[in-house]
Amino acid sequence: MTAAPFTLDDLKRVLLEGSGAPEGVDLDAADVPDTEFEQLGYDSLALLETASRIEREYGIELDESVVGDATTPRAFVAAVAAHAA
Amino acid sequence: MTVPVVVTGLGVVAPNGLGTSDFWNATLAGKSAIGPLTRFDASGYPATLAGEISGFAADEHLPSRLLPQTDRVTRLSLVAADWALADAGVAPADLPAFDMGVITASSAGGFEFSQGELKNLWSKGSQYVSAYQSFAWFYAVNTGQISIRNGMKGPSGVVVTDQAGGLDAVAHARRQIRKGTGLVVAGAVDANLCSWGWVGLHTSGRLSTGTEPTTAYLPFDDRAAGHVAGEGGALLVMERADAARERGARVYGEIAGYAATFDGRDDRDGRSLRKAVELALADAGLRPGDVDVVFADAAADPGLDRAEAEALTGVFGPHGVPVTAPKTMTGRLYSGAASLDLAAAFLALAEGQIPPTAHVEPADRYGLDLVTSQPRAAELRTALVLARGHGGFNSAMVVRSAA
Question: Which of B253, B288, B303 lies at the terminal end of a domain, its last residue?
Fold first, then answer.
């Protein structure tokens, strides 16, 4: 368990490490946090990989529903925060 | 009854050349890529030579999103497909998705990717295995990734028949085009020169343990003692002849005939291979005298060489047709080999040059007119490509230059 909260920047880093950069999308754009992952170019497998990397890096266990339910970066970060709490 | 199917694009990733012209120039020049394995320390293995592709930087050709989920073989396949489509002058985005298919062959899938994930599994635990392992290892992964990248949703598949697969995939693509699919990307690229893959390749008992690059792989030579393994292959864009003509495409030639057979348990004289040749000629409506050059399977195992030579002299007569094996410069590429031979055959037909068989001094007893050391200029209209897969697969394909 880490003390630092999980942020959008952390999510971006893990996405890039595990699944690479999407084509033609600027992940720093202002509307990214509320854009659907699918629109950003990340499919369900990319989110599975991301969840798995967060679990082992932060020593937490995420519910399987996180990947299915959190369809935007902001929702994903909130879901991770809820599990880490 | 059946519509002619032609090849309009070639994408080549070979140890002795990346891209069609690099490969062809190297092949005509007799430039071999066989050398000591560099990908990992192979000094503890019986075989230490390979035909490696060097200078391939996947990130120069593919988006970063694809890299964490692909094995080397898939990256090579994706780039070969891109090059083949560009060569054919085809923009898949402009064509109906369900009218384009992808059919590849594979002998091993994504071995190196799997090696890394299995290492993670036993050393760190299951939570360290990539989600992408679910498909990155898979025989069909090259077909799948090419299909996704190019939006090709028509009839697709994969065949697994070792070295024969390089022809079997193209034959299956021809079937799908005859059934109505407009365009198919077909052929094979194989790449498993990682330490785990290397162990697997040794199980065939057919790898050369020679340490001298110029003498380690010598098919039809008295010194033959197994083959050198290589990586790479070729992908072809295939279309109906009339459709290709209609869009004004450059046509390399036609897939005129094909047949596949299996060896019987006591098949030591090339009987089944000969049958495949005869059936492929019949399928093409041609006679042995119509064939201008043969691209041999060239196993470099004395028994297998004899069987192939007997099949060829049986059909064409002793010294009855020029025979070549440019794979002596790349090593055997498993599924990729015969697809690369097909590409070489079309280039040979176009330029009237039979590429050489490197370093080989053919044994008289085989009765083959083997083209060695230098390319041979000849009027070429029809070529026969042979491929044998481990386990008894024989495939023969006849290709003919565009009329």
Answer: B253
